[in-house]
Amino acid sequence: MKKVLLSAVALLAFGFANAQEEEKSANGGFSKGDVFVTGAVTFGSEKTGDFKTNSFELAPQVGYFLTENIAIGGKIGFASYKEEFSGSDIEDMAGFQVGAFGRYYFTPANQFSLFGQLGLDYASMEDKLADSKFNVIDAGLGLGMNYFVSSNFSIEAGVAVLGYSTNDNGGDGADATNTFSFGGDWRAVTFGVNYKF
User: Fold this and answer.
1) Residue ranges of the Outer membrane protein beta-barrel domain (predicted)?
2) What is the CATH number of the domain that holds 62?
């Protein structure tokens, strides 16, 4: 009787562990060696009387898990910004961006995980009307979260906490604009979709 009882307990424990593993797999999560793709596509338009602005940005990112908790990655992007007044262009800018980031995930194997991110970006923009170029370097520390809705797809949200940027304003003797921010801009919370391979 004792052997039957122990066998039944062992069988139940094995079944429970197996069910937990299947549930974990079905709910997603990250592990060492995983590759993920995420990014942002934004479009904005605003009009006040005869004044109109349009903006567009495409910035895909790819990341790789070096360890269970640490992911590194890069991004490349394109952005444009245009202002019009009474049908005439007053500003028309476009350019590209490249960047690198590192993330630390606190509970990467779970369906829900928080992460901290450190990133460095370089952007080069050209003002077509003024025939000038300017370069911007951004460094930032942020917080984010991933929530897996399936084994491969997750919803991602993030917010900047600490940031520094410098804009050379075209160089050639122009004064640079240096910006420091702390505490995050809660109006600029980002949302996206993350796909894990």
Assistant:
1) 9-197
2) 2.40.160.20
